[in-house]
Design a protein that fits this description.
mainly beta, six-stranded antiparallel β-sheet, globular
Length: 244
């Protein structure tokens, strides 16, 4: 299968957790629904019109976190609005804790590598043209419209589906059900993060499917896949990924 590979880059991000309360906590990486929304935005598709077009049956997406990350909590001022009369800021302000994802170490930017494939060739080519040309209907951003980002083209590559009953190095975020039970390899150097995320919306923007995802912070996840994985080579890189 052919796939597009590109990077989402930005100074900071906020990907609000579905089970957070008034304190807006963030995932470490964008959920599948966020990536789909960003791609629909650069194509200029209307809000809530694209869920079927980019459903897991037609569209395959994987993500790899390419930079160390850290999180900080900041208090953000919002207008206190109870009615239209308060839109002039007459109601004063309310302060809400907001968690931001920032690059760790000496990195200046967050970098998420996205792998994209679609069964509809016209959609695939439209996404490819938009990313290569840098011409977007709506600009890409990292969770919030105030956190603008950029898309950097990496490659177009051919992925090969493989099956294995042995340990495989996986370089992407994975759905936990896609790994053989108790096959994950642990060491003193591995650091895992588990996230509970929305996977798909209905056409009415109701949650249709959720799942647990696993992320190893240095891309050293080694386990036995319970489903076929995708081997892809581009440039000097050879990677194994699992779709979100």
């Amino acid at each position: 299968m052919k796939m597009l590979i590109f990077d989402l880059i930005g100074k900071m991000g906020h990907f609000r957790k579905i089970d957070t309360n008034s304190s807006s906590l963030s995932y470490a990486f964008p959920p599948r629904t966020t990536i789909v929304g960003m791609i629909a935005g650069i194509l200029g598709m209307e809000r809530d019109s694209y869920y079927e077009v980019f459903s897991p049956d037609q569209c395959q997406i994987a993500i790899s976190v390419r930079t160390p990350i850290r999180k900080v909590m900041q208090t953000v001022n919002y207008m206190f609005v109870k009615s239209k009369a308060h839109l002039n800021n007459s109601g004063g302000h309310t302060q809400i804790p907001l968690e931001f994802v920032l690059p760790g170490g000496e990195e200046a930017n967050l970098r998420y590598r996205i792998y994209f494939s679609h069964s509809d060739r016209s959609v695939y080519e439209s996404v490819k043209e938009r990313i290569q040309s840098g011409r977007y209907v709506y600009p890409p951003y990292l969770g919030l419209s105030e956190l603008l980002g950029q898309l950097q083209w990496v490659a177009e590559a051919e992925g090969m589906l493989k099956e294995s009953n042995d340990l495989v190095s996986i370089h992407s975020v994975v759905r936990i059900p896609d790994l053989r039970e108790r096959s994950i390899q642990f060491s003193r150097d591995t650091r895992f993060l588990k996230e509970f995320m929305t996977r798909q919306f209905t056409n009415e923007r109701m949650i249709q499917e959720t799942d647990y995802y696993l992320f190893e912070q240095s891309r050293q996840l080694i386990a036995v896949p319970a489903v076929p994985y995708v081997a892809v080579a581009y440039g000097e890189a050879k990677e194994n990924i699992l779709w979100m």
